[in-house]
Specification:
The structure holds 2 protein chains of 2 kinds. Chain A has 2 helices and 5 strands; from the N terminus they run H-E-E-E-E-E-H. Chain A has one domain. In chain A, a hairpin with a 3-residue loop joins strand 1 and strand 2. In chain A, strands 1-2-5 form a 3-stranded antiparallel beta sheet, covered by helices on one side. Chain A has a two-stranded antiparallel sheet with strand order 3-4. In chain A, about 35% of the residues lie in helices and about 20% in strands. By secondary structure, chain A is an alpha+beta fold. By secondary structure, chain B is mainly beta. Chain B has one domain. In chain B, helix 2 links the parallel strand 5 and strand 6. Chains A and B meet through helix 1, strand 4 and strand 5 of A and strand 2 and strand 4 of B.
C-alpha cells in the first residue's frame, strides 16, 4: 500500500471519529444510537455510562446495513467491563463509534493517480456529512 | 497466500469526552461480526483457519474440501498490513456462543473476530494451499 493510500486511510478514520463525536457529544448517556449512512460509509455513535459500556451482560453495539436492510447488522460486543480498561475514567460517559466502509482502499486507492481524486471525494463527502450532522445536532438542541 | 477483501471494513472506537481511547490488551476479547458482500460466499468458503485434520476428515467423508477461507484480519498500524496476529476468527450462533464446525465449508455463518484490541477489521477471502503429497 503506498503512502498516499495510507494518508487517505488516516484521514478517513480521523473524519469518522469527528462524525462520531458530533453524533454523540450532546446525547445523554443511555440514549439510542445515532446513525448516518451514505453509499460508502455507515456510522453509529452511542453514549453510555462507563458502567454500562462493557461487560458480559452489556448490550452489544449494532450498525445496521442501511444500504441493504436485508443484510445482517454489524455487531460489536465489548465483553470486558469498561472500568477494567486502562485509562477509562469511571465518572465520565463512554462514547462508542461503530463504522463501516465499503471503500476499497487496497484497490482504488492504490492505482496511480487515483489517491488524490479519492482523497478529494472522501473529504467532500465527509465534510458535507459532518456539516449536516452538526446542523441537525444544533437544531435538535434548540428544540 | 492470495487473498482478497470479502466485505466492508469495520472500525470500532471508544472515546471519552470526545477523546479517542487507545484500547489494547483487553482481558476479554472484543467480539465483532464482519459483513460479507456476497452472502453466497458464506456457503462456498470455510470460515477461519481449518486445520489439516478437518480438511482430511471432509475429504474422507466425501464432502468437498474448501479451497478458500474467510478470515478476520485487523489493520496493524505499526507494520502497515492487514494481519491475523492475535485475532481469532469465529462464528457465533444465535445464543452468542461459538458455533461448532468453524473451518467447515457450507456453514453459512457470519465470520466474526475476537481480538483483544480495537482497530480496523475486515473479512478476507484467502485461498488455501491444496497440496497432494
Amino acid at each position: 500500500m503506498d503512502n498516499e493510500t495510507l494518508a487517505v486511510r488516516a484521514e478517513l478514520k480521523a473524519q469518522v471519529a469527528d462524525i462520531g463525536r458530533a453524533l454523540s457529544i450532546n446525547a445523554p448517556a443511555g440514549a439510542p444510537a445515532a446513525c448516518i449512512a451514505t453509499r460508502a460509509i455507515g456510522v453509529c455513535a452511542e453514549k453510555r455510562t462507563a458502567a454500562d459500556a462493557g461487560g458480559a451482560d452489556a448490550q452489544p453495539y449494532t450498525l445496521a446495513n442501511l444500504q441493504d436492510p436485508s443484510a445482517a447488522p454489524t455487531i460489536a460486543k465489548m465483553v470486558t467491563v469498561a472500568l477494567d480498561i486502562p485509562g477509562i475514567d469511571p465518572t465520565v460517559p463512554v462514547e462508542a463509534v461503530l463504522f463501516s466502509s465499503t471503500m476499497d482502499l487496497h484497490g482504488t486507492g492504490s492505482q496511480v493517480g487515483s489517491a488524490g481524486r479519492l482523497t478529494l471525494t472522501l473529504t467532500l463527502t465527509l465534510t458535507l456529512t459532518l456539516t449536516l450532522t452538526l446542523n441537525l445536532t444544533q437544531t435538535q438542541a434548540q428544540t | 497466500m492470495d487473498s482478497a477483501r470479502a466485505g466492508a471494513s469495520v472500525s470500532f472506537l471508544l472515546l471519552q469526552g470526545g477523546v479517542e481511547l487507545e484500547v489494547s490488551g483487553l482481558p476479554q476479547p472484543l467480539q465483532l461480526t464482519l459483513p460479507v458482500l456476497d452472502s453466497a460466499e458464506l456457503h462456498r468458503s470455510c470460515v477461519g483457519q481449518p486445520d489439516a485434520a478437518t480438511l482430511l476428515a471432509r475429504m474422507v467423508g466425501g464432502s468437498p474440501a474448501c479451497s478458500s477461507s474467510l478470515e478476520c484480519r485487523y489493520w496493524d498500524e505499526a507494520e502497515k498490513v492487514w494481519s491475523t496476529e492475535g485475532c481469532r476468527t469465529v462464528v457465533y450462533n444465535e445464543e452468542g456462543g461459538v458455533e461448532e464446525g468453524v473451518g467447515v465449508a457450507g456453514g453459512g455463518g457470519q465470520p466474526s473476530c475476537e481480538c483483544t484490541h480495537l482497530s480496523d477489521f475486515v473479512a478476507v477471502k484467502a485461498c488455501l494451499p491444496l497440496t497432494l503429497t
